[in-house]
Each structure stands twice: as C-alpha cells, then as structure tokens.
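Fill in residues.
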C-alpha cells in the first residue's frame, strides 16, 4: 500500500509540474512573464573597462527613444551655479555665488557632451599630479598662479606640483608643520573641511595620512578649480560661505582649514566663524593661514594699513574666544585654534546664553539662512580612532539621538551592505580597483555601502536626500566618512563628468511623485564620466521605467535579480555610459 501511495503521488506531481511548465498554470505563467520582462541575465557586451584613455569613440547605438545631445557650449554646465544666472543676484555676502537653480521651464533636457579629445583620467595616485588637458582645457590658472606652484601646463597634461598660495614649497611640507601641533597620524583626525580650497592640494596630500577632506570653492574667476580637484581624484564640491548654511550636519569635522581663502571671518558679527563652529566637532581644530595672520610683515602687500590689518586679527581673536576656542599655535603665517572638548562651562561663565541659536535642530540646514549665533554645544561624542571608528557603533545611535535606529539596526545594515557589495563585485570585477576613484552614493543611509567599499583606491560622496525620513548624515561623519545633503530634484553642486561610479538605493522610489524621473537621470548622466558605471537597486516596476528612459541616453543597461533569488521584487540595474564627445554635426543641428 505504501509503495502504491508513493507512486501515485509521484505521478500526480509529475503531471502537475508538466501542466505548470506549459504556461497554462496561472502562478508560473505570471512568474515567467515577469522574468521575461526583467530579462535577468548579464549581457556579454556590458563592459566596465575604459577604452578611451588616448583617443577614439565607439559607434553610438541609438534606440527608438532618443534624448539629444546639448550644444558643446554646455560641456561644463553647472545648472545651479550658472555664471549668467548668478549675475542677476546681489554680490553682497557672496549671494550671487550661492546655489540658484533654473526654473522648470529653464531646465535643459539634453545630454551634456564631453569636450573633443576627452580621455579617462589617470589612475590614482598618478591623477593627483597629472590631469589630461582635454578634460578641463583651461590655462588661466597656470598663468595666474604660476609663482605659487598651483598648476603647470606640460605638453598635453596639467601638472600639479602640490603647491598653494600659502605653501609654495608643497602641501606635504605644510602638513608636516601642522602635524607638529595636531595629531594627524594616529587616526584621531579623519574628516577635514577645506574652505576656499583652490585645486584641493591640501586635501590631496592629506589622503597620504588617511584623512578625508571635504573641499569646496565657488565657481568664480579661478576657472575650473573644483573641476581640477575632482579630475585629480580628490573630494570637492562647488560651494561658498555666503548667506546659506553649509550642507553638513553639526559636529561633523575633526579639522577645518582656510589657506588664504579670503573669507572675511571678522565680518557679520563673526557669522562665518560661527558656522565653522557649528560643523566642527568638540575638540576639533581650526587652521588659518594667510590674511590677517602675520599682518605685521604683509600688510603692505595686502594694501592695508598696520592699524586695519592688526584690527582684523584682533576681531578674529575675540570671536574665537567667544566661541570657546583656544589658540594653541601661531608661527609666521599659520595660526591654529582648538575648540574646547566641553564648552558648556566656558559659555556659562562668559554669559553667552543670549548669543545661543534658538533652532531646534542644528542639522536642519538645507537652504536655511546662516545666523550670527552660537550653536549649543551639546555633549562631546566619544569617537574611536580611525579605522576602528568605521565599524564602531556611532555615538548618535548609542546616545539615542538617531530616532528609529537601534544598535541592532546598525549591525544588520552593515551585514546587509557587505553582502550587496560582494554581489556588485561579482558582477563588476573592477569595483574596488583604481578604475573607480570618485564614487557617489545617492541615498547613503547609514553609510554602510561606503564602509563596505572602504579602500585607499577610492572615496565615496555619501548623499543624504533632504526628503529622507531619517537624517543620517551625522552618523556617516561619525563613522569617519564624508558626504552632503542634497535634493535630487535639483542639480548637484559639481561639474560635469566628475564621478566614475554612481550608486543609488531606492532613489527613484523615494522621489516618486516629487520630481521627474528623466530630470534625475539627466543629472546623473551630467555628473558621470564617459564609460562610468551606475548601480541602481529598487523595485522591479520602478527600474523598468528607469531602463526605458536610459535606453535613449547612450547607456547600456541590464536588469539583474536580487541576491536572494528571482522572486524578490527588489532588482539591480547595472548600466555603463557609452563614450561619446560633441561632434560638429550635433552642434550645427
């Protein structure tokens, strides 16, 4: 009887399986249709290597839905820092250099072209010292900063000797002097802010000491300085200390730096120093080299009287004292202050209660006006030294200052992203190599994607969208990573072709019904280098819509299953931007 029952069951399930395999069975026919639509296999012709280190462009594969190229005059277009639009705004307090994004009817709906002759940047660390001329064909700085060793033009490349206005003998020697005062070697200092960074040589050479620097400078007469920084493989954004708060959370940076950045620190009641104080971690350092330091020697060069130059430094000293910063070093052109690790008592003793900001959330900064007030100090976070800091539970989570995020959530997030990154590396074996130097994570969460990738060969710009339910950027900085706030309905504060790889986790789901999918994709295309890669992780419905758009953007794409199998609705879209440059025919049309 047992044998008969077993044989009967075998026959029944064989017939059932055959019926479902035929497609007549409803459940499997739906699964079959979904699999056909998502087509979850890896294309043999999806290549991640670069093919244009010297010259030549691949033939373009056009599709039925085509987004046309823009004119070559837009090759370096920065939508929210457009020079023509900027002139309509007042110059007072650098308002005209701040973000001013185009209205909906002014947005470009075309692909930003690379200049003729564009090539893949040199791999790090060679890229620190050399940039192909064709990628940023602007020679003005080679003349203007010739005696300061910023940049030199040699043959078909720019050479960066590592000099700066205040360190003509090189950033390395300059950093050595700072290291005699500040603990730069033991992992205490990990995140730095460079205001008015020039071509970011300071940040470039700090990388030798495992320090990540967020460098920023305006798009101004120093043509393409931030573009040069990113071509060199150094983190940088277009930005300015003007009237709007910096897009970083409070207590983010271990060190802040100004080397002849020409920011009027003593003006507006010390507002700019107060903003640095907001983003500077308790116990952090502020370095000021250049005017008005060493005024006695240089006041005539600066075309200032002794009285005025001395007065400028005196006002800075007074503001620093009000902020409870201690001056710990001054020699020749350099002065260094250290923010007290616990400034509660200092502020109480000095009667600063009336000068404290009234804001409820010191991290709520997107398009918020800067104020002449002191950010309440709060408790000093006990951070581990880097690299332990990268995986340790951040103080904001430990102290309960991250609503909805527990220690268990943090640990699980780390495990999950290690698994995801391993999957990415199986698909794209060049991930983690020098092929991808500048990486952006469009929806960074707790920064676990960047942590899983951590390598001296690359860095990640961790973006926390302003529409996110959870503000996690402070946690990211506590891990020893860098990033910024941003709204992806607007253009990012960078030049075109500045990122090698863009990663987006549920970005398009997040922005559903908030702005146009095509606008976000065009912005991604603008900031992605030719032959750069994109990894998107989202629901299958969302990614199918995205794939439909990018088919006309000169991207090659493929949809892949989730690591846990084809029945998981979350999928992975892998794309590679084709190499192409502006042509005469497109410009004439």
């Amino acid at each position: 009887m047992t044998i008969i029952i077993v044989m009967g069951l075998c026959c029944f399930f064989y017939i059932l399986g055959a019926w479902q395999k035929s497609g007549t069975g409803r459940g499997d026919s739906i699964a079959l249709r979904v699999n056909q639509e998502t087509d979850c296999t890896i294309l043999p012709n999806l290549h991640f290597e670069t093919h244009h280190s010297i010259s030549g462009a691949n033939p373009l594969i056009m599709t039925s839905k085509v987004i046309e190229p823009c004119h070559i005059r837009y090759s370096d277009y920065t939508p929210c820092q457009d020079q023509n639009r900027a002139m309509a705004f007042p110059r007072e307090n650098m308002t005209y250099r701040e973000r001013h994004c185009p209205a909906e009817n002014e947005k470009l709906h075309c692909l930003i072209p690379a200049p003729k002759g564009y090539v893949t940047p040199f791999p790090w660390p060679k890229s620190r010292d050399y940039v192909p001329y064709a990628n940023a064909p602007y020679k003005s700085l080679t003349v203007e900063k010739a005696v300061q060793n910023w940049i030199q033009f040699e043959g078909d490349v720019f050479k960066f000797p590592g000099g700066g206005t205040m360190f003509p003998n090189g950033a390395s020697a300059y950093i050595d002097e700072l290291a005699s005062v500040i603990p730069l070697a033991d992992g205490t200092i990990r995140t730095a802010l460079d205001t008015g960074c020039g071509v970011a040589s300071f940040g470039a050479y700090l990388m030798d000491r495992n320090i990540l620097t967020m460098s920023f400078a305006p798009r101004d007469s120093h043509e393409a300085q931030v573009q040069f920084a990113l071509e060199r493989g150094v983190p940088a954004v277009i930005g300015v200390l003007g009237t709007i708060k910096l897009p970083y959370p409070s207590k983010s940076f271990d060190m802040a730096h100004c080397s002849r950045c020409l920011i009027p620190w003593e003006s507006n009641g010390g507002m700019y120093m107060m903003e640095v104080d907001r983003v500077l971690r308790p116990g952090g350092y502020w370095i000021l080299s250049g005017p008005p330091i060493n005024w006695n020697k240089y006041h005539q060069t600066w075309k200032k009287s002794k009285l005025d130059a001395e007065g400028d430094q005196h006002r800075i000293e007074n503001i620093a004292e009000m902020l409870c910063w201690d001056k710990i070093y001054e020699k020749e052109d350099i002065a260094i202050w250290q923010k007290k690790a616990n400034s509660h008592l200092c502020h109480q003793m000095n009667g600063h209660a009336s000068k404290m900001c009234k804001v409820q959330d010191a991290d709520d900064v997107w398009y918020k006006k800067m104020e002449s007030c002191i950010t309440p100090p709060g408790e000093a976070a006990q951070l581990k030294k880097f690299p332990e800091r990268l995986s340790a539970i951040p103080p904001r989570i430990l102290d309960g200052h991250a609503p909805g995020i527990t220690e268990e959530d943090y640990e699980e997030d780390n495990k999950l992203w290690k698994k995801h990154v391993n999957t990415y590396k199986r698909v794209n074996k060049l991930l983690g190599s020098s092929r991808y130097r500048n990486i952006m994570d469009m929806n960074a969460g707790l920064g676990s994607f960047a942590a899983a990738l951590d390598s001296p060969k690359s860095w990640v710009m961790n973006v926390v969208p302003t529409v996110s339910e959870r503000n996690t950027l402070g946690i990211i900085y506590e891990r020893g990573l860098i990033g910024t706030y941003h709204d992806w309905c607007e253009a990012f504060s960078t030049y075109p072709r500045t990122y090698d790889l863009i990663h987006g986790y549920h970005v398009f789901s997040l922005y559903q019904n908030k702005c146009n999918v095509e606008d976000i994709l065009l912005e991604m295309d603008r900031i992605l280098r030719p032959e750069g890669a994109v990894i998107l992780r989202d629901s299958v419905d969302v990614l199918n819509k995205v794939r439909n758009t990018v088919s006309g953007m000169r991207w090659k794409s493929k949809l892949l299953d989730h690591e846990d199998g084809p029945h998981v609705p979350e999928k992975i879209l892998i794309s590679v931007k084709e190499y192409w440059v502006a042509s005469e025919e497109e410009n004439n049309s």
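Residues 407-427 form the longest helix (21 residues).
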